[in-house]
Amino acid sequence: MLPNHVPLTVAESFGTLENLYPGRVDLGLGRAPGTDMRTALALRRGQGGHDTFRQDIHQLERYFRGQEGEPIRAAVARNTRVPLWILGSSTDGALVAASLGLPYVFASHFAPAMIMEAIQVYRTSFDASAPTATLEEPYVMIAANVVAAETEAEARRQFTTHQLLVRGMARNNRGPLQPPVDQVELSPAEAAFVEQHLAVSAVGTPRQVADQLEQIVEATRADELMLNSYAFDPEVRARSFELTAQAWSQP
């Protein structure tokens, strides 16, 4: 969440990671603060409410490239060329990614409402000739929620942890993850809220999850998927990803 951080610090942190783990680090840049405004102000240098997202991205790109003539250099980041991705959940982020010629990640794991519109805007507005461009053509990653288990019933039970989390958002009562339950009690308004937020999810047996993910790829023409899971038990979460990977690799 770039508004919360000074670009120089970001460049030094990710430049360090790239030096430690070459070729294994990507940097996703989001425009939203990702928190309440008091916390955002505590995290970020004073900027008087001005949106400096694009300028900060350009500054990061210069730090990673090690451009000559820069008055300030992030030595550990120079020439690492850490891949930059633009994160978004609306057409605003899509336009930024397109205008800069960078890959785009849509946050459909929690805000899928504008997924098709944002992807269309990104693809039709993509500028491969931008000075910051790293691609010759658009590249889209879609985030999806996943819970796979040996049985569909068990997967749906584990998924209730995520449903409870979103219900808490609807009630303005955020808190830690809760253990799964047999049934999530929802009012009609809450049910609609939960369904809308979790629309891009794959839940069930490994084969069902793989089929659902294939449908998501077919609908969005995504180039890549990023999977998310809020299973309460870390071992259940890890097993879910393992089962999904196994099913995905099978014809």
Structure characterization notes:
Strands 1, 2, 3, 4, 5 and 6 form a six-stranded parallel beta sheet that branches. α1 crosses α3. The protein is built from nine helices and six strands. It is globular and about 60 Å long. It folds into two domains: 140 residues, Alpha-Beta Barrel (TIM Barrel); 106 residues, no CATH class.
Summary keywords:
Bact_Lucif_Oxidored, alpha/beta, 12% strand, 46% helix, TIM Barrel, Luciferase-like_sf, globular, 6-stranded parallel β-sheet
Secondary-structure blueprint of this entry?
Elements: H1 7-20, E1 27-29, H2 37-43, H3 53-65, E2 84-88, H4 91-100, E3 104-106, H5 115-125, E4 140-148, H6 152-170, H7 188-197, E5 201-204, H8 206-220, E6 224-228, H9 234-249
**CATH class term of the largest domain:** Alpha Beta
- Indicate the low-confidence ranges by residue numbers: none
* Fraction in helix: 40-55%
What composes the largest sheet? 6 strands, parallel
Task: Please report the total strand number as a whole number.
Answer: 6
Write down the Rg: 20 Å
Percentage of residues in strands: 5-15%
Quote the average pLDDT.
92
Output the number of helix runs.
Answer: 9
Write the CATH architecture name of the largest domain: Alpha-Beta Barrel
CATH level 4 superfamily of the largest domain: Luciferase-like domain
Counted up, domains total 2
Principal-axis shape equals globular
Order of helices and strands: HEHHEHEHEHHEHEH
Give the class from helix and strand content and strand pairing: alpha/beta
**Per CATH, what is the topology of the largest domain?**
TIM Barrel
End-to-end span in angstroms? 38 Å
